[in-house]
TrEMBL record:
Residues 298-470 form the Histidine kinase domain. GO terms for molecular function: ATP binding. Signal peptide: none annotated. This is histidine kinase. The lineage of its organism: Bacteria, Bacillati, Actinomycetota, Actinomycetes, Micromonosporales.
């Protein structure tokens, strides 16, 4: 490196308003560095130790996107600068790395200033300007953080309300089934007491117990009938019961039909018990079947509650490390589970999941927020009716998640601005315009991936690309 003259500094637009003492300081602390064509003056992600000013030549600025170096700008204007451009900040953490790379397109000469010393000089030369800029910088960061946090809290509140609604249904079903089960058990005890009061011999009682096991086994293997088939079966059984002196057979027929019983079953019962005990025996078997079905309802409802709680834990990543190797499918499934209330009955969910999808290093709780924002937007776009498609695939270097909807689509103007902070097409009070901005930053900045959108009427797709290799985030 060589020195630089005050006269050359004075000819640069960046320093044209500085006085002689300030130019002398720059000449004393700055050094001229030469970079041949094709070489890198600074590299993205490296510690930001220097502030660079172009003296001669042409440079290209670039950033890494999905492992590829994408050129942002190219210029040969003397005086353009790069590197530690926020060296004046007191917050060293905010400017710890170079945000982009600088490559010499032709042979280049740069003025190189030590970032720490240059930052101190700027704060001494322009204290009021630095205070204003610091206030603006930190104010914008604080505002952005607060609004982003508010967006997350609003989304969490909505999901919590929906989850409580989903939990309430199986909980209420469990309470109803338990109450009905208690009533049926009471009736069973009364019928059993009547059957065992001495008027029935041991052989008859044994036959009833065997019949009980038979009808329970038939219940477990009962074929599902169409509404028309079930109605016809109920009519047949009700007629049979009436013909055999069983009172209110129309009340028993639906239970026996649901248990998979037919006329042959009733004939078998009739052949194994005395005609005087037929009504009591059938009612006792009916109570047995109802009891089994109610216990099945309680089991199903309990399983649904456990499934929802499991999905909520998976969604929130409770008791798990923030960064881990994950199966993307788990996050997608848990997000769909906790958002079931948002999708409603009018939206059909189609899942086309790649069985060979590799595990990836990620922040799963943050990715779940991405899936939530995209699916929520899709549900609102379809206005409660349409098809939501969740498709996954992979390449050698990335996992792809494609979330599509059949909503009305978006214009090219909206599509171009969809990831801008505070941009929203929702009515006032219904959106902050930060959901997709947050999603973009999570995918791109936190995971080194990419997120893109294509849209036409009836066919909108958000495609998230996540690298399978470890990514070190500097954000």
């Amino acid at each position: 490196m060589t020195g630089i003259s005050v006269a050359e500094l004075r000819g640069l637009f960046l320093f044209e308003s500085l006085d002689d003492d300030q130019l002398a300081w720059l000449a004393e602390h700055g050094r001229v560095a030469e970079f041949p064509a094709g070489s890198h003056a600074i590299a993205e992600g490296q510690p930001a130790t220097s502030f660079l000013v172009l003296l001669d030549g042409e440079l290209a600025m670039s950033r890494q996107v999905r492992g590829d170096e994408v050129e942002i700008s190219r210029t040969g204007q003397r005086g353009v600068y790069a590197g530690a451009t926020q060296a004046w900040l007191h917050d060293a953490q905010a400017v710890s790395v170079y945000p982009s790379s600088i490559r010499a397109v032709t042979d280049c000469r740069f003025l190189v200033l030590p970032a720490a010393e240059f930052g101190l000089a700027l704060r001494g030369w322009f204290p009021m300007a630095v205070h204003l800029l610091e206030g603006l910088y930190h104010g914008m960061r604080t505002t952005d953080a607060l609004i982003s946090q508010r967006e997350r809290l609003v989304a969490l509140g909505s999901l919590s309300a929906g989850l409580m609604h989903e939990l309430n249904n199986p909980a209420a079903a469990t309470a109803r089934a338990t109450s009905a089960l208690r009533e049926r058990m009471t009736h069973m005890r009364h019928k059993l007491a009547m059957l065992a009061d001495g008027s029935i011999d041991r052989t008859q009682l044994r036959s009833l117990v065997e019949l009980q096991e038979t009808v329970i086994a038939r219940l477990k293997n009962a074929a599902e009938l169409t509404p028309m088939q079930a109605a016809d079966r109920e009519d047949e059984l009700a007629d049979w019961l009436a013909d055999h002196g069983v009172r209110d057979g129309w009340d028993l027929a639906p239970v026996l039909t649901a248990a998979g019983m037919d006329l042959a079953c009733l004939d078998e019962i009739d052949g194994k018990v005395d005609r005087s005990l037929l009504e009591q025996s059938i009612r006792w078997l009916g109570y047995t079947l109802e009891t089994e079905m109610l216990m099945g309802e309680i089991e199903d409802a309990s399983a649904r509650i456990s499934s929802l709680v499991g999905a909520a834990k998976q969604y929130s990543q409770m008791d798990r490390a923030a960064h881990q190797w994950i199966d993307v499918h788990e996050g997608l499934k848990s997000t769909l589970a906790v958002m079931r209330h948002k999708l409603g009955d009018g939206i059909t969910v189609v899942k086309e999941l790649d069985a060979g999808l590799p595990r990836i290093p990620a922040y799963p709780a943050e990715l779940n927020q991405v899936w939530t924002n995209i699916i929520d937007n899709a549900a609102q776009a379809m206005d409660g009716r349409g098809t939501l498609t969740v498709r996954t695939s992979h390449t050698d270097t990335a996992v792809l998640v494609d979330i599509g909807d059949t909503g009305p689509g978006m214009t090219d103007e909206v599509r171009r601005r969809i990831f801008e902070p505070f941009f929203t097409t929702k009515p006032v009070g219904q959106g902050t315009g930060l959901g997709l901005d947050i999603s973009y930053r999570i995918v791109v900045n936190r995971h080194g991936g990419d997120i893109a959108v294509t849209s036409r009427p009836g066919d909108t797709h958000f495609v998230v690309r996540l690298p399978v290799a470890e990514y070190t985030s500097e954000v």
